[in-house]
Every structure is written in structure tokens, then in C-alpha cells.
Design goal:
The chain has about 160 residues and is mainly β. The chain is built from two helices and 13 strands, in the order βαββββββββββββα. Strands 1, 2, 3, 4, 5, 6, 7, 8, 11 and 12 form a ten-stranded mixed sheet that branches. A three-stranded antiparallel sheet has the order 9-10-13. The termini are close together.
Length: about 160
Amino acid sequence: MKTTITRALAPAALAAAALVAPVPPAVAAAAPGPIAGSFTVPCPGFKVVLTADGKVGVIDLPGDRAKIIWPGLTVTLTAKSGEYITYEGASGVTHIEPASDGGQYVTATGRNIITVPKANGHPLGVYFTIGTVNWTLNADGSERGGMFTGTGTVVDVCAELAS
């Protein structure tokens, strides 16, 4: 079964490392450049292939802050069963701000695809968020506190692909 959802989105973490690894202190500002490729991401009990095509850009801000933008991005998540969901377009932004202890405060605004490692009692997975969601990372990249806070809506993509 094919599901296509035409929505604006920004994958806050196409690769888990994009959110788990701390942002280098001197991120260079860059005009959005092409991004294309596929990789496997885990869901509870199975894996999905995430395929991305579009652009990515990093905007360096004062105070070691950064914004990651993903204009014109299309993401398709495909399960082994052949079920897949496609998200097209882009309007989300990932905002990264350093914490005083070396960690990071992360806020995703707009529409985003976020990969989450298994941590702090919640399962690993892939989520589609709409609106504003927040999370905090420790200096080593591990998650601090709850998985998502904020006023946004969170959709469990793994659950959608498993049904």
C-alpha cells in the first residue's frame, strides 16, 4: 500500500548523528546545497529505509547557535513489507542552542521528520512533527528528560508503517 502525504517538512534529523552529535562550535553558514541518499533507520521490531532528496543548509548564529534548514526536501520511508509514506516539500527549521553544561537545546518548528534513538525509557523510532517540539541533549549527545515537549503534534511513523 502506498501513502503519499504532500506536506511541508524539514527532517530535523535525517541521520541520528545530526541530532545526537553536538554541533561544532564554529558551524559555517552555508547556502542550501543538495542532499540525496538512503539509509536504514530503526523502528521498534523492524527497520525502514529513509530516502531523502532535496537541499540542506546550516545557518550559523551568534552565541554558537545554529539553524538547519531543508528546503525542497522529499523524504520517503519504506518498510520491508513494501508499505511506504512520502513527505514532500519543506518549511520546518531545526534550531540548536548550546546549554551551559555543554549540552544542547533543540527546537523543531514547522513540519519535520525526526529520528529518535532508544533512550530514557522511550522506544527508538521515526516521528513526523507539526508545529513546535523541543528536546534537550547532554554534552555526550544522549537525551535529557522527555522525548518531546512543546505545543506541536507528534505522529509515530513507525506505528503507521507497522499497521
